[in-house]
Amino acid sequence: MDSALERLSEAVREAGRSGRALRLRGGGTKDFYGQGLEGEVLDTGGHGGIVAYEPSELVITARCGTRLAEIEAAMRERGQMLAFEPPHFGGDATLGGMVAAGFRGRAARRQVRCAISCWA
Predict the structure, then answer these.
(1) Which of 54, 60, 68, 118 has its CA 20 to 30 A from that of 74?
(2) Element (H or E) spanning 40, and its range?
(3) pLDDT tens, residue by residue, 38-78
C-alpha cells in the first residue's frame, strides 16, 4: 500500500475510533455545493495519479485525487475523451470529487453507466 493511501486509511480508522467527523476534500472545487461544510478536512489530493490506462479497451483506472485535467490530457493524447462532461469548477477538480458530488454532465444521463470500484 502506498504511503498516501496508508495515511488516508489510518486517518479514517482514527476518526472512527474517536467518533470524529471527516470531510474528504480533493481539489475543493465543490465546497460550495450542498449543505454546510462540517468535519475535519481529510485531503485526498495526495492520493492521485493514473494507475493504468488501456486505450484499446477504453478503460482508465485512476486514484481519487487525480485531477480531471490530467485524465483528460492523457486521453486526448490517444485521441480519446471521457464519454461524459464533468464540470470542473476550476483546475483542481478531481475524479473523487466528481464521483462524490455526482457531477458527470449532460452526456452521462444519456449514454454512460459509471461503475466505481474501490479497493486498497
Answers:
(1) 118
(2) strand 40-43
(3) 889 998 888 999 999 999 988 888 998 999 999 999 999 99
> pTM, whole model, 2 decimals?
0.78
Distance between CA atoms of 120 and 35, rounded to whole angstroms?
Answer: 29
- Torsion angle of C-alpha atoms 93, 98, 103, 109, degrees rounded to 10: 130
**Number of neighbours of residue 26 by Cβ within 10 angstroms:** 26
Of 60, 66, 70, 73, residue with least CA distance to 117 = 60
- 10 CB contacts (<8 Å, ≥6 apart)? none
Phi, psi at residue 75, to the nearest 5°? -70, -40
Chain centre distance of CA 4: 14
